[in-house]
Amino acid sequence: MRTDAPVSIVPREAQPYQGRRAGLVSRSIAGVIDGVVVVAVLLGGYLSVNGLRFLINPRGFQFSEASPVPGVTTGLLILVVYLAVAWSATGRTYGCHVMGLRVVSGRGGLLRPHVALLRAVFCALFPLGLLLCAGGRQHNSVQDLVLRTSVIYDWRPRATTMRS
């Protein structure tokens, strides 16, 4: 027997949450996943630079010393670029994708690039602002309140809203 009913891409169990604001646990897990992505990129860059140094001078090769201050600064820069590009392009990072989240503007659309960049800098420099979303019904972090953004549950593969 054939039915012509449309098939939803949102899992049945998730449908009641589609479009609702995400809480602390979902957002924190997505943040940890994104942190792992940034550390992997940073480690890959370190290994690539040392691999290039080895190719240039194999006999005198020694691994370069990984200093904490440049390493943290580079990691924060990678994090800001990663978050800003992902949020302005699709509204989600890899961590958001895994957790079924999307960062949206106050009107529900994709973030403008400058807003995404400001939010990324804010999140990188003040990650404790996320804790505010544990209280209250709106689940807004400090970043959300200041920049008028929201993090919602959205399992759709692409944002169907307009850039606002």
Automatic annotation (TrEMBL):
GO cellular component terms, A-Z: plasma membrane
Keywords, ordered alphabetically: Cell membrane, Membrane, Transmembrane, Transmembrane helix
Domain named RDD: residues: 22-130
A Pfam family of this chain: RDD
Membrane topology designation: Multi-pass membrane protein
Subcellular location: Cell membrane
Protein's name in the database: RDD family protein
Lineage, highest ranks first: Bacteria, Bacillati, Actinomycetota, Actinomycetes, Propionibacteriales
